[in-house]
Specification:
Strand order of the largest sheet: 1-4-5-8-9-11-12-15
Pfam family, one: OmpW
Strand content: over 45%
InterPro entries: OMP/PagP_B-barrel, OMPW
CATH class: Mainly Beta
Order of helices and strands: HEEEEEEEEEEEEEEE
Protein name: OmpW family protein
Radius of gyration: 25 Å
Number of strands: 15
CATH architecture: Beta Barrel
Keywords: Signal
Distance between the termini: 45 Å
Organism: Litoribrevibacter euphylliae
Length: about 220
């Protein structure tokens, strides 16, 4: 009986001590690595008016850009229990560019949109398995490997790189102390000046406002 009372007292004291100790989902110095599927969805068409470069005349046509899904990667370094810095990366996205309503394909381009954001985890120092967050940052989009569609009379497609703001919301679900699931949504300011030659017309230009939503679902690991 005495042993049972002693054991109960020890258990009660242990539980009281553990209850007094704050449990944190994330702490300063934690590194979170996530990988999954990321879809870039440009804003609804039209994405940009097409002008004749030499005269500035409006052709009355618009450029449209399609969606693409690639492997998305992000890395977060926690500055505190609530604040982290995220770097978003991905394998190159490839988009087809069309002339809206004209049945013409201008060509295709690839791009990489590295983004650095400051994130704020809304719950902070709790042991909740759900960890929602919001973030703001800067995006730099590098366009490369532009290919004009010569079968429709286009050549010399070129798109300028872009820099703009980015905003995001997301949530981590901690499956274990180290493994997590993530869902996140980004809004990115991506605008590019595009030029292309069209047989019989000359050089066309367009200020293409891609401004995509980016949707990502991923699996993560906390180091």
């Amino acid at each position: 009986m005495k042993m049972n009372k002693l054991g109960a007292a020890i258990l009660t004291a242990t539980l009281a001590m553990s209850g007094a100790t704050a449990v944190h989902a994330y702490d300063a110095g934690d590194i979170i690595v996530r990988a999954g599927a990321a879809t870039v969805e440009p804003e609804n068409a039209p994405n940009g008016d097409i002008l004749v470069s030499a005269s500035g005349a409006d052709t009355g046509l618009n450029a449209v850009v399609d969606n693409d899904t690639q492997l998305g990667l992000n890395f977060v370094y926690m500055l505190s229990q609530n604040v982290g810095v995220e770097v978003l990366a991905a394998t190159p996205f490839e988009h087809e560019v069309y002339v809206e309503g004209a049945g013409l394909k201008v060509g295709s381009t690839k791009h990489l949109p590295p983004t650095v954001s400051l994130q704020y985890f809304l719950l902070g120092d709790t042991d909740s398995k759900f960890q929602p967050y919001a973030g703001v940052g800067l995006n730099y989009t590098w366009f490369f490997d532009e290919n004009a569609n010569s079968s429709d009379g286009f050549s010399d497609l070129d798109l300028d790189d872009s820099m703009g703001f980015a905003a995001q919301i997301g949530v981590d679900y901690l499956v274990t102390d180290n493994i997590l699931l993530n869902a996140s949504v980004y809004k990115m300011d991506i605008d590019t000046d595009a030029t292309v030659n069209l047989d019989g017309v000359g050089t066309l230009k367009s200020d293409v406002e891609i401004d995509p939503m980016v949707y990502m679902v991923s699996v993560g690991y906390k180091l």
